[in-house]
Amino acid sequence: MNRTRLAAALAALLLAPLAHGADTGAGKTIVMQGNGAGALPCMTCHGVDGAGNAGGGFPRLAGMDADYLARQIRDYREGRRRNAVMQPIAQALTDEQAADAAAFYAAQVAGTAAGAPATEQAAAGERLATLGAWDRQVPACESCHGPGGRGLGAAFPGLAGQHASYLAAQLHAWKNGTRANDPMNLMKGVAERLDDAEIQAVAAWFATRPR
């Protein structure tokens, strides 16, 4: 079994669906109006179309796996992810509301990717993404996140076209221990072996990949 198939099998075993049967119409209401019980409209930071805001550190949600998105809301609520904005919103959403909002964003069409990074940085990022650095036990990112970083279900999200600033911030979060919601602590082990230049390079490379 190759690594991509192994990652997909692991995802299926570890993660039960959270957004199955969700209501995208109800999700649109949450996205545009909030829930009236403490959860602000998602569009405030992520936009109605789910494009996010690179400068503000708000990720693209459009086209992401619905179960992955719903799981992130749950993890913010339960403290496995930390963010001063997202945690109170997650705590104010019910599981059903989170699933509905996730399904709405999953159904949106992602926009075009960012421009290509500098040549040396692109080469370093592509090398880590496609080959890894096995001398330091760093597997290729594509081993779990799929060809081109398009994602594999709820466990391994799509990285292609995501804002580079957000990807880099998450790698730093795993590295310093402020994020701890990855299957079997896989990402923590990877992030700890990357230096700052490598983090910036691989984040910039994935930001340019087609979704």
Automatic annotation (TrEMBL):
<feature type="domain" description="Cytochrome c">
    <location>
        <begin position="22"/>
        <end position="109"/>
    </location>
</feature>
<feature type="binding site" description="covalent">
    <location>
        <position position="141"/>
    </location>
    <ligand>
        <name>heme c 2</name>
    </ligand>
</feature>
<dbReference type="GO" id="GO:0005506">
    <property type="term" value="F:iron ion binding"/>
</dbReference>
<dbReference type="GO" id="GO:0042597">
    <property type="term" value="C:periplasmic space"/>
</dbReference>
<keyword id="KW-0732">Signal</keyword>
<feature type="binding site" description="covalent">
    <location>
        <position position="144"/>
    </location>
    <ligand>
        <name>heme c 2</name>
    </ligand>
</feature>
<keyword id="KW-0408">Iron</keyword>
<feature type="binding site" description="axial binding residue">
    <location>
        <position position="46"/>
    </location>
    <ligand>
        <name>heme c 1</name>
    </ligand>
</feature>
<feature type="binding site" description="axial binding residue">
    <location>
        <position position="145"/>
    </location>
    <ligand>
        <name>heme c 2</name>
    </ligand>
</feature>
<dbReference type="Pfam" id="PF00034">
    <property type="entry name" value="Cytochrom_C"/>
</dbReference>
<dbReference type="InterPro" id="IPR036909">
    <property type="entry name" value="Cyt_c-like_dom_sf"/>
</dbReference>
<dbReference type="InterPro" id="IPR024167">
    <property type="entry name" value="Cytochrome_c4-like"/>
</dbReference>
<feature type="binding site" description="covalent">
    <location>
        <position position="45"/>
    </location>
    <ligand>
        <name>heme c 1</name>
    </ligand>
</feature>
<keyword id="KW-0479">Metal-binding</keyword>
<feature type="signal peptide">
    <location>
        <begin position="1"/>
        <end position="21"/>
    </location>
</feature>
<feature type="domain" description="Cytochrome c">
    <location>
        <begin position="120"/>
        <end position="210"/>
    </location>
</feature>
<feature type="binding site" description="axial binding residue">
    <location>
        <position position="86"/>
    </location>
    <ligand>
        <name>heme c 1</name>
    </ligand>
</feature>
<feature type="binding site" description="covalent">
    <location>
        <position position="42"/>
    </location>
    <ligand>
        <name>heme c 1</name>
    </ligand>
</feature>
<dbReference type="InterPro" id="IPR050597">
    <property type="entry name" value="Cytochrome_c_Oxidase_Subunit"/>
</dbReference>
<protein>
    <submittedName>
        <fullName>Cytochrome c553</fullName>
    </submittedName>
</protein>
<dbReference type="GO" id="GO:0020037">
    <property type="term" value="F:heme binding"/>
</dbReference>
<keyword id="KW-0349">Heme</keyword>
<dbReference type="GO" id="GO:0009055">
    <property type="term" value="F:electron transfer activity"/>
</dbReference>
<feature type="binding site" description="axial binding residue">
    <location>
        <position position="187"/>
    </location>
    <ligand>
        <name>heme c 2</name>
    </ligand>
</feature>
<dbReference type="InterPro" id="IPR009056">
    <property type="entry name" value="Cyt_c-like_dom"/>
</dbReference>
